[in-house]
Each structure stands twice: as C-alpha cells, then as structure tokens.
Backbone:
C-alpha cells in the first residue's frame, strides 16, 4: 500500500521538488529566490566561477531551454580564479554567492554554503517551469515586494 502524502517520507503533493533549505523561509531562501527571479527577468547572464560549475551551468541552460521555452536568454560561463560565484545580468541587478558580502547594496548577496548552488539552480528551474516572469503569483508574494538587501544581509550576518 502506498504511503499517504505527508507521511514520514516527507513527500509533497505538488510537482515542485522538496528542497528543505528553501522551504524553511530562511533569509538565505529569500535571497536565493530573489537572485533566481533576477536571473529569469534578465535577457542574459554571465556566471563567473572557479571552473567547477562549467558542466552544471551548461545543464542548467539546457534544462531551461527544454522546460521553459518561453524564457529566451543566454547563460555564459566564465572561469576565473575565485571561490566566489558572480552573476552579471544583462539588464538587471547582479548577484554574488560568497563568504563575504560585497560593498554594493545593489548586488543581492547569498552567503556561500555547501548547498547554496544546488538550491539556486533548483529555484531557477522551478520558477522557469512555472512560467516566471510571465506567470501571475507563481513566485510567491515576496516577488511583488521591493527587495531590501540591507535587511537580508542583517538577517544573514
């Protein structure tokens, strides 16, 4: 007999994958969601990284092309000597995954943790499949509010 939804197996009735770090409503989750929305609103993004994400960035680009064909933008992978992951958007404000925050409050900062890249990747795919930015309400109520980077950093630090 199949286990009912919400059983001890922690299953969810929606088609959205269960990502515990994002479902907790943490400040990291909010920053991840904001960066994912910025990426999907952009017409193109350059992701600078240490080279270990090259294949994953290509897979993310392919996943978006296959599952969210209405989203038309390019993802460029740039390898550089740094442990930070920097997101430069063509027509949106940038983002950074790093141990330390950037000086500019225009850049959404996500503190680097073991799972943060996977959380971001999952959120981008989830929102893309839902039709963001063309969908109504699919990104949650926070998507309609202005982003407050100062508050986000204060909660993380």
Residues:
């Amino acid at each position: 007999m199949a286990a009912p939804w919400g059983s001890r197996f922690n299953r969810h009735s929606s088609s959205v994958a269960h990502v515990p770090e994002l479902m907790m409503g943490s400040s990291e989750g909010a920053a991840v969601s904001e960066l994912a929305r910025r990426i999907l609103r952009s017409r193109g993004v350059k992701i600078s990284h240490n080279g270990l994400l090259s294949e994953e960035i290509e897979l993310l680009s392919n996943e978006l092309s296959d599952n969210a064909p209405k989203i038309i933008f390019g993802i460029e992978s740039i390898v550089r000597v740094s442990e930070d992951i920097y997101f430069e958007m063509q027509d949106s404000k940038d983002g950074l995954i790093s141990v330390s925050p950037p000086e500019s409050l225009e850049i959404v900062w996500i503190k680097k943790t073991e799972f943060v890249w996977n959380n971001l990747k999952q959120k981008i795919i989830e929102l893309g499949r839902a039709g963001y930015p063309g969908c109504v309400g699919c990104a949650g109520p926070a998507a309609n509010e202005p982003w407050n980077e100062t508050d986000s950093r204060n909660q993380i630090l």
